[in-house]
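Quick question, first post here. What does this chain look like in 3D?
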Amino acid sequence: MERVKVEISGKLYEYPVNSTLLEISRDFQKDYEHQIILAFVNNKLRELFKQVSCDCSIRFVTTAEDDGHKNYQRGLILIMLKAFYAEFGKENVEKVAVEYAVGNGLYCDYSGKVPLTRERILAVKQRMEDIVQRDIPFLKRSIGTDDAIELFRKYRMFDKEKLFRYRRVSKANIYNLDGFEDYYYGYMPPSSGMCRYFDLIPYDDGFLLVLPDRKQPTVVEKFVPQPKLYETLKEANAWAQMMDIPNVGALNDVIAQGKLNDLILVQEALQEKKISDIADMIKKSGKKFIMIAGPSSSGKTTFSHRLSVQLRAHGLKPHPIAVDNYFVEREKTPKDEQGNYNFESLHAIDLEQFNQDMTDILEGKTVDIPEFNFISGKREYKGNFLTLGPEDILVIEGIHGLNDALSYSLPRESKFKIYISALTQLNIDEHNRIPTTDGRLIRRMVRDARTRGASAQRTIAMWPSVRRGEDENIFPFQEDADVMFNSALIYELAVLKQYAEPILFGIDRNCPEYVEAKRLLKFLDYFIGAPSENVPNNSILKEFVGGSCFKV
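> Answer (accepted):
Ran it through. Tokens below.
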């Protein structure tokens, strides 16, 4: 029998030609703490049903890794849909939509002829458990794009039908789970038996598919409500529905029909109204310290400027202060496990000096506000004296803004906290959501390339570290905010596409970041590109593509 040589963890092994990755993985599962669900073959991500036909190197991917976790999540969504249609009857289901992530759950909405009850949701969960127990294979087939359009019209999945009308590729990959067919942006597990850990619970008017965390892929933690985040996501979804653009296909319709400018004007007006409402809340609160925090590339700088404009329009005198100006001197900066400076640590800030200055300002004293010189790594004082009058307030922006440990000397009643993030309200289709992190990563790539000359490869390589910092320093405090602001623009990915694609194509195929670049290029291919000329120069989007009227 003909055999192939495969390199795994630096050692060579031989297997019969056309052995599947799943068969090979079974010999190595004992060496991994968590379940193997995908594999890299010669640095290309592959599903486990793929066969090995020539000599190669293999690196297995588990559910504890980002690619593996996403794969697991897609498998669970297809299992949930299969169970849902079986329980309710496909003739009774108008739509089941996977809307957005809240904590460790995916919020799903339903419309149809049969009422959504707690008992029905429990019955769907029981059907899901049965599907998992039966370990049914996910079957994959490739069909023509025109055939895909007809297929999804037949299944009354109209979001997908519209999406495929704008697809330039000639083929589409369809997954089949025991007769239930669907399309997914990304790979699937080999079988349903790999998706054992989940929960399904009622929530608000819909239900939540509760998932295990990537760090503990065999543990499903009890869902902890995040009401402020949920209401912000719900409001964003309502905006999308109001503008009749819930998905990429609908956005492409607007662009193709030459109506993008009207959409831009309405979306920007909605954001400006929200900022004005926040300014009104601040004035009524009488608080002196406006603390703004949010994850990377959420548009904090532009938001701070626009909020300051609205505060002035409300008769107040805002003074912006960047917490970064209170960095400790470079040699005193704490380091991470790799020995690199950890600028995202709370202790990278001179907490004592920051609190002394803020307390003095609150007591009516005059304070010289420092500026941090990022070249020399030292704070400098240039006579930026500040004294608070009756209408003066401080707009303080930094990643630790919501953490009371940053401003420990200030009474809570003196602080108005704002959490800002780009919470994408657009979905690819009814079953393929756009993760918020994808929108922020694309924003950051475009901005870093423009302002820092950084390659997309470098931005992608740094992203896991950025995310870890957010998990530690930002997300735990978001529910403590007085108000949340969603900086995502429903049209932005169509504009960012023009800037992101060239730098993503510049990533070498043999480098580790190429897999993520390929995924993002496939994702951007769903959009019709749009120019940035009609984007207002005070838009948050201009912070990333350039041309902002603010100093960003």
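The chain has three domains: 3-62, 68-225, 230-545.
Residues 68-225 form a domain with the Threonyl-tRNA Synthetase; Chain A, domain 2 fold (CATH 3.30.980.10).
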